[in-house]
Amino acid sequence: MNNEVCQSAVTIENRRILVVDDNESIRSLITSLLEADNLNTKTANNGLEALERAELFQPEVIIMDLDMPVMNGYEATRRLRLHPDFRMTPIIGITGGDNKHTAKRCTNIGFDKLLEKPFDMYDLLETVCHYLENIVTKS
Q1: What are the sequence ranges of the domains in the chain?
Q2: pLDDT in tens, 2-59
Q3: pLDDT digit string, tens, across residues 67-103
């Protein structure tokens, strides 16, 4: 990544990130940030679309909003964790309202990290970078 957030010598450009949020502005903002650092992104508007896109795109990290129509992020993540291809895929939850109950529920379902909206884009990029570096290191 060209951003100073990632200090690793490991190249993580062109890694696949799925961004799931029903808010088009948020999806656009996140994908612009990631694509500026040469990451390959796909988007979904809800959890059901996320399941379909994940199957085809095989993302290495998923950024998942919790509260969406059609299928929320909790159910989408629960289903992804049942799929052999996504049991270990890092899933970063994003929510408009964080509390202890939400954090505990996210942990129990299988989210790896939870960020509260409005989140700092630097924190999101740093989190994505962290997971991608770990994936590259373990490969």
Answers
A1: 16-138
A2: 445 555 545 677 899 999 999 999 999 999 999 988 899 999 999 999 999 999 999 9
A3: 999 999 999 999 999 999 999 999 999 988 767 788 8
Three-class SS state of 61: strand
The 8-class DSSP code of residue 41 comes to E
For 21-132, strand residue ranges (E) read 40-44, 61-65, 91-95, 113-116
Which helix (H) or strand (E) element contains residue 128?
helix 121-138
Tokens of 33: 């940030």
Question: Which pTM value belongs to this model?
Answer: 0.90
Cβ neighbour number for residue 28 with a 10 Å cutoff = 13
Q: CB under 8 Å to 38, separation ≥6 — which residues?
A: 1, 2, 13, 14
Topology, domain 16-138: Rossmann fold (3.40.50)
